[in-house]
Design goal:
Blueprint lengths: L5 H22 L5 E5 L6 H12 L8 E5 L6 H8 L7 E6 L1 H8 L9 E11 L1 E5 L7 H8 L3 E6 L5 H13 L2 E6 L3 H9 L5 E2 L7 H5 L3 E6 L24 E9 L4 H14 L3 H9 L3 E6 H21 L6
Parallel strand pairs: 1-2, 1-3, 6-7, 6-8
Antiparallel strand pairs: 3-10, 4-10, 4-11, 5-9
Helix pairs in contact: 2-10, 4-11
Length: about 325
């Protein structure tokens, strides 16, 4: 009997592994996949998720179906994905709230419960008021806010937008009455109705209302001015070094088979190159910030440490 050389054996092993992955890639997914958005319809996260699901049709053999599961600043939707019985068939839209919520003591779900697929975008927080409000500049707004408790809408206690407002309080001495909402869009609607004085969601999430001259963005919490809002100053320009924002990305439960993760990562990388994605982001004034799985994982670890420090510094845990 002829003895196979070491090179031949290695060749057979490589062929077998390649064939196995190829076959798996052709069989997953075999049914529609849910893309779980942990926020209400209409907000920036939802808009991005729906654009992604349409563009992904070219790169996955089964459709991505967007399912909104809002509540608890994202925790309800993330629990829905983690409790799924069929790994890979429920994908979570992750956001920076996942870094804040556990550090606030509101949930035991952490970023470490997920395997990162990719980060899709990043947007800084902004201070937004009604277009007919008496405050034309952020200085005027903050000066008035120091006199009493302004009602500030955000995405719920412990959300990124809540912490953005809390950081402004800590830096300026302003006094805010934090009003929680299920997401950015409900908060914006309440502002439009005159029920609150301002909101601290991203500029992207109010861009349509700004374009319609219904809302006014006074400042953004970023290192530099952002696309679509070039006339809006940063807080840093005004002497307040406050940089808080949110990203959106995709993740699946930890323990999802590597083959499944590889298929989803490859499809996501291709989907994010589709012109329709860039068009949606530009139309919504949302920042493109793709990062692959490993890089996205590093971003989550870094941001988790940032929010843990901020929450401890402001003594917000459990409040």
């Amino acid at each position: 009997m002829q003895t196979l050389t070491r090179a031949a054996v290695l060749g057979i092993i490589c062929f077998t592994l390649t064939t196995s992955v190829s076959v798996y890639a052709q069989t997953f997914p075999t049914k529609p996949v849910e893309l779980v958005v942990p926020y209400p319809a209409g907000g920036g996260t939802d808009v991005l998720a729906r654009a992604f699901s349409v563009a992904a049709a070219k790169h996955l053999p089964q459709p991505l179906i967007v399912v909104n599961k809002p509540g608890a600043a994202g925790a309800i939707g993330w629990a829905e994905v983690l409790n799924g019985k069929d790994p890979g068939y429920k994908i979570a839209v992750l956001a920076t709230d996942l870094m804040a919520q556990p550090n606030m003591g509101y949930t035991k779900i952490t970023y470490q419960d997920f395997t990162p697929i990719a980060r899709l975008n990043y947007d800084p927080a902004a201070i937004t008021v009604r277009a007919d409000s008496p405050w034309k500049t952020v200085e005027e707004f903050l000066a008035e806010a120091k006199k009493g408790e302004f009602r500030i809408g955000n995405g719920g206690n412990g959300s990124t937008w809540h912490l953005a407002a809390a950081a402004v309080e800590e830096k300026t001495g302003a006094k805010f009455n934090h009003i929680p909402f299920a997401g950015a869009n409900p908060a914006a609607l309440s502002l439009l109705g005159g029920h609150i004085e301002a909101i601290t969601v991203s500029a992207a999430e109010v861009s349509n209302y700004v374009s319609a001259d219904k809302l006014r963005v006074l400042a953004v919490m970023s290192d530099s001015r952002i696309k679509g809002f070039e006339d809006v100053p940063t807080l840093k320009e005004r002497g307040l070094d406050i940089q808080v924002g949110t990203w959106r990305g995709l993740g699946v439960p930890k323990g999802t088979p590597k083959e499944t993760v590889d298929v989803l990562r490859a499809a996501t990388a291709k989907t994010m190159q589709e012109p329709s994605i860039r068009e949606t982001l530009d139309k919504q004034n949302m920042g493109y910030a793709y990062a692959d799985g490993d890089e996205f994982g590093a971003v989550m670890a870094r941001d988790n440490a940032f929010f843990a420090n901020l929450i401890q510094k402001l003594d917000l845990k459990g409040k």
